[in-house]
Specification:
2 domains; 302 residues; 11 helices; Yope Regulator, Chain: A; alpha+beta
Length: 302
């Protein structure tokens, strides 16, 4: 932020935090969005109105804990140090230190730290050892600890899925987006990390086809076993395909349906530059209407 705009925002924030009661109940910027603006503009934490920023973190904490909040935090941005503190407590600093230059070795160290801690975290790569864990978590069965969540990481991102809510920490930029919904998907990395969750939750076979650099020519390839499809007559099935295409068309330019030699259904959906996490969730929810089994909705409706 430069010049007049920064001066205006600084003055507005200073006036807002001068009355703390008003700041808590009725901040001058809607849902404290100027905190996100400041972080996105690379402002260090020391330049933020810390009382207001702490309200943002407190609101996210209450949201995660299932407590009453003044508003539901959606696409809220906080610094990574606070994000890791929310989920990993006393181990957060050590984990964050290992993320500064992530290698295969440091990823193993992070997984080991988390596995030895009291945090109810499940590493995404180990989910195959616990089939059905997504449904078990959502049903809050007794064998699952309260607050259990699934996490994954690579050299660029650290993601957490907890109670139909997605959190994404950008390890290069130093901030995390909490309860992601309307943010555009900027990286193929993120899609590759969240797709296994969708695949398990929807019982699809999902792969990515990157024909050209993401997102210029990238398609979601969704495979459904014929036995998993609803028992629909062929002519009705064609009608259903048309309905799905029309539902997706405002957000996805092209959707195609093909049956393979084995009579399994293959669906291709082109990802757009503006595609958001909600959009991708919408794709999978819409296509799951073709299936007999009940599927998991990975993101809460807003």
């Amino acid at each position: 932020m430069m010049g007049y705009l920064k001066e205006y925002i600084d003055a507005l924030c200073e006036d807002c935090v001068s009355d703390r009661m008003n700041n808590v109940l009725n901040p001058k910027c809607r849902r404290r969005f100027l905190i996100s603006v400041r972080i996105l503009s690379s402002s260090p934490k020391s330049e933020l109105p810390l009382f207001c920023y702490n309200q943002v973190v407190s609101n996210i904490t209450r949201f995660i804990d299932g407590k009453t909040t003044l508003f539901t935090p959606i696409d809220v941005i906080i610094y990574n140090e606070d994000f890791f503190n929310l989920f990993f407590g006393k181990d957060a600093k050590e984990i964050l230190n290992h993320t500064k230059d992530l290698t295969d070795d440091s990823i193993k160290k992070i997984v080991k730290i988390i596995s030895k801690s009291n945090t109810p975290a499940i590493y995404s790569k180990t989910r195959k050892e616990r089939p059905g864990i997504l449904r078990t978590i959502l049903k809050r069965e007794k064998m699952i600890r309260e607050g259990s969540f699934i996490y994954d990481l690579n050299p660029n991102f650290f993601i957490i899925w907890r109670s139909n809510t997605l959190f994404i920490a950008d390890l290069r930029k130093g901030y995390a987006i909490c309860n992601v919904h309307r943010e555009p998907i900027e990286s193929l990395d993120i899609l590759e990390m969240i797709i296994p969750l969708y695949s398990e939750g929807k019982e699809f076979q999902i792969t990515l086809q990157e024909i050209d650099q993401f997102p210029a020519k990238t398609s979601l390839q969704i495979g459904i076993n014929r036995k998993a499809l609803k028992n629909i007559a062929d002519e009705q099935l064609d009608k259903k395909f048309t309905e799905i295409t029309e539902e997706l068309s405002p957000k996805f330019a092209r959707t195609t349906f093909n049956f393979t030699d084995k009579l399994d259904l293959q669906i291709y959906v082109e990802v757009q530059r503006t595609s958001t996490f909600d959009d991708v969730n919408f794709v999978f929810n819409t296509i799951s209407t073709l299936m007999e089994a009940e599927s998991i909705n990975l993101l809460n409706e807003i």
